[in-house]
Amino acid sequence: MPELPEVETVLRGLAPHIVGQEIRDFTIGPLSLRKSPPANFGKNVRKSRIIEATRRGKYLVVHLSNDKSLIHHLGMSGSFRFISADFSDEPRKHDHLAYHFSSGDRLIYNDPRRFGMLIPVPTQNWQDAEPFRTMGYEPFDEALTPQTFHGLLKTKNIAIKLALLDQALVCGIGNIYACEALFMARISPLMPAKEMARTQAEALLSAVRSVLNDAIDSGGSSLRDHKQVNGELGYFQHKFAVYDRAGQPCPGCTCDRDETGGIRVVRQGGRSTFFCPVFQNVSQCSR
DNA sequence: CTCCTGTCCTGCCGGC
DNA sequence: TGCCGGCAGGACAGGA
């Protein structure tokens, strides 16, 4: 599930291969993604050169020399594979987009579930284009202070877990890292966001940054689909404290194992939240 | 406005 | 063995 660490991993793998390359052609397959330009879009970017690749939230942004930018979202199952000119490569099921470079190198976007997107926008003021216009702080933005974060949470009449998933507050956090950060900060995912104490907001912001950094260092989390650009899997999934660990012992405490069976799962906003009700409700935990 | 629910899509897994 | 239902997840539309 590409959240910020997965997209950042893809970006770091991709950038050295594609920045500076001239696009000879750009092809779009017949099956549409959640958002994709028309099949003949390629003519708009021919002969242009990739001058920068960057990331905003969970989106990967490719800036071209012809004042266009291509915004990619990997949906939940998207991956890129880069193929050097001197390597052969068979087309694969679910290939949907392809950059054909003048060097002979290629970059293919594959996405079984087709939840991904490709949105072309003018490079000028690209930060103000949809989907970025309403997007919140980057998690590592220095302007996002504990006070600012606390202030944002105060305005939300929803559970803190759901507030972490709201890209209009802080972007890049998905289901996995929301669960992991709340565990690390020892905060119940069910707590109303507006009831968070200053100190809790501060601890949570630190935890978010710590978890995201650890995950980036691990090449992201590979559950079913995420791959690094070189085809290797990320390995942060081996470090999950709570995510997808329902019924397993809490790595933070031992005081509830017999009573509750350890990590528990509940539904919030239609998705699974994994947490330890004891460790993440500090008053109940003897540690 | 804010918040919540359903939808998109395919592959995988468990149950029968 | 094979089929089928349920589930997973990010963004967004539309309803309350």
Which class best fits the helix and strand makeup?
A: alpha+beta
Percentage of β-strand residues = 15-25%
Helix content: 10-25%
Which overall shape is indicated by the principal axes computed on the Cα atoms?
elongated
Question: How is the biggest beta sheet arranged?
Answer: 4 strands, antiparallel
- Uncertain spans: none
Give the spatial strand order of the biggest sheet: 1-6-7-5
Radius of gyration: 21 Å
Termini, distance in Å? 33 Å
Number of helices: 6
Number of strands: 10
Please tell me the overall pLDDT: 89
Order of helices and strands: HEEEEEEEEHHHHHEE
Outline the structure in words.
With 287 residues, the chain is of the alpha+beta class. The protein is built from six helices and ten strands. It has helices at residues 4-18, 146-154, 160-165, 175-184, 198-217, 257-260, and strands spanning 23-28, 50-56, 59-64, 68-73, 79-83, 95-101, 106-110, 117-122, 264-268, 271-275. The strands form three sheets. It has a four-stranded antiparallel sheet with strand order 1-6-7-5, with helices on one face. Strand 6 and strand 7 (106-110) form a beta hairpin. It is elongated and about 65 Å long. The model has no long low-confidence stretch (mean pLDDT 89). The chain binds a DNA duplex (16 and 16 nucleotides) through loops.
What descriptors fit this protein?
4-stranded antiparallel sheet, DNA-binding, 6 helices, single chain, alpha+beta, 287 residues
Architecture blueprint of SSEs:
Elements: H1 4-18, E1 23-28, E2 50-56, E3 59-64, E4 68-73, E5 79-83, E6 95-101, E7 106-110, E8 117-122, H2 146-154, H3 160-165, H4 175-184, H5 198-217, H6 257-260, E9 264-268, E10 271-275
Antiparallel strand pairs: 1-6, 2-3, 3-4, 4-8, 5-7, 6-7, 9-10
The protein binds a DNA duplex (16 and 16 nucleotides) through residues 1-3, 34, 58, 73, 75-77, 94, 111-115, 117, 131, 156-158, 162, 165, 167, 174-175, 223-225, 269-272.
